Each structure stands twice: as structure tokens, then as C-alpha cells.
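S1.2 Input.
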Amino acid sequence: MEVIYFFALLFVFALFSLRLAKSPVTAQMVFSLTGILLGLIFAVQITQSFNRELFLLIAEVALVLVLFSDASGINIDALRNNRLPLRMLSIGLILTIAIGIVVGIYLFTNMLIWEIAALAAVLAPTDAALGQIVVQNRELPHKIRETLEVESGLNDGIAVPFLFLFLAVGLAEDTFKPFNYFINTTLEQIGFGILIGLLVGLIGGYLVLQAKRKGWITKTYQRLALLSLAISSWLIADQLGGSGFIAAFVGGFATGYIFKDAGDILTDFTSAEGMLLSLAVFFIMGVLIAPLLPLITWQILLYAILSLTVIRMVPVAISLIGTKLSWDSVLFMGWFGPRGLASIVLALVALEKVPFFPGMDTFILTVSITVLLSIVLHGITALPLSKLYIKRNKSQP
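S1.3 Output.
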């Protein structure tokens, strides 16, 4: 039943998409909130018919394609000329996870430290798709837009090893196997993920490039070939014990390094078919968390608010010390770190790796509420704050 509602909503939203594009109302906002409404109305029917494996598959494929596409479009020369993303992806990301852990320890007394650490890692990545008004606004300084877009494209792939490490700690506490076994397993996931991603990306990218030069491949099949590389890197790494997400991310980067047009070709997919998968994830998330809303505590709500503000903005400010950016630029970049698809998928992956743990309900609700708040708050503030920031920059000498 929920499938019918989803496509009906998609059709209606498509009819008004151009008008809505000029308003604070985003697609993610409409689909997640409509999902919640349907979840409240049809909670029993949906719970009985819900296919968790299918939802996980849709979410994983969506994230894999986003990781591969974002990584394939990375401009290495731009990173050399703009060091801001490197600061935010190193100092900023690590501090975000660390502060998230500290805040969680004080607020969630019912959760184990590794559960809180996993929560902090899941909520660390940002989602540029939720802030398209910002990253696509040509009136904003190019360096600011580029930094936010590159950060969003890379931080989800970087957060994955941290999550696997924290989950390994949790598994070590709950089983009789030695702790070193799980650390080695985590390192294998990272190592195999990087290796498979490099092999698939370099070899596959080279073959697509040669086929293009010889005139053997059409534009349509160029896109399909690149999409097959993304899915293949994910599946092969997963079968060999590596992280499919790391493989997809590294594979995209390697493919883009060899085949320079990969990012542009895949942009067409992520703006259409990829958006379909992404909106399906937000819609289903809204449906599933609707019955859990009465379980929200003040600690969960406070952590969600802090995750979008202090836990995000303080590390960004620290990472940008010495860059000579104005205070309003630092605040602007700190605020526009929306949480979205990556957080949802990484939470699902954590639940797949560790099907049950004491703080599971708190974990699920905190991730969901943080993403929902981000969808609404960042959607509403994107346009007015962008205009205010542009006005301030124009008025400065």
C-alpha cells in the first residue's frame, strides 16, 4: 500500500516541482513528513507488510550511487587550491564525532559508550542534497559553495571506518571472541574496501575511457557502465569481507581520476533516478518512525538540536582557525551541515551488523529526529540565510 502512496505523492510533487523549487519547501521535507502522516494513520497495516530487507537494499543502493557519483566528480586541482575542505574533513569531522560522544555520554545514561560513539559517527556526515539552494547559488562565494559541496561528498565515506570500529568494540563486548579479532575484521573491511574500489575504479574507468575514444560506446551506455562499476565495487567488496561503501567511494574517486567525464555523466543519474531512490528512503523513514514518536524524550530532542548546532558548528569553527574567513562565513558554513541520506543508511547498516543492543530504540529515534529536524530547519533557513549572507558580503569593502 505504501508503494502506491509514494508514487502518487511523487506524481503530484512533480507537477508543482518548479514552483516549489523557489520556496523553502524541499522534496525531502514533503516526502518525510507525508510518510509520518501515513505512518500514523496506517501504522498497523504498514508494520505487518513492511519488508526490512528491501528497505535496507534501497537505502544501500542509494548511498552507494551517491558515494560513487560524488567521489567521481572530485576536482583534485580544486582541493589543492582550496584547503578548507581538507580542514573540515580532518579536524572538523574528528572533532564532530568526539564532541558527539561527550555530549551523548552526559545525555544518554541508558546507552553504552560504543553505542553513543556509533551514534556520533552516524550523525557526522552531511548531505548537500538537502542544501541545494546553498551549493547551487552562484551569488554565494565560490570557495564557500565548493567547500560545503566537497565536504558533503567526502565525509560520509570517511565516517564509515569510524562506525565500523565502534561497532567492532560493541561486538567484542557481547561475544566471547577476543577484542583483537574484531579490530582485525574492521581493518580488513577498510583494507579490502579500498583495494577493491581501486581495482574496479581504475580498470573499469580505463576500459570505459578506451571504449569512448574508439567510438564503441554510446552516451547512454557510458552512464550504465559507470553505474555498473559503482554497484560492482560495492557487491564484490561485500562478498570478500570488505566495506562496500568504502569500495564505492574509492571506486568513484579512482574512476573519476582515470575518466574525467565520469562525474558529469553520473550527475544526470543522481538528479533523476538517484533522487527517486533517495526520496523513497525519506518517505519510508517517515512511515516507520511515526509509531515511535510518543517515545521521544527531552534527551533525544536536545541531542538532535545540539547535533545540528554545537556538535557541528564548534568543530567547523575550530577547523577554520587561521583561514582568515569572516565570522559570518564560519557561522554560515557551520550551520549548513544538513543530515540526510548517509545518516539513515549508516544507521541501518549498524542495525544490520548488530541486530540488537540495549540502547537501540534511543539510537534509532535520535538519528531519525535529527534528520527530520535537519530537513525542516535547513530547508526553511537555506534561502533567507543565503540572501542575508550575500547581502552582508556585498556591503563589506
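S1.4 Remarks. The chain has a mean pLDDT of 83.
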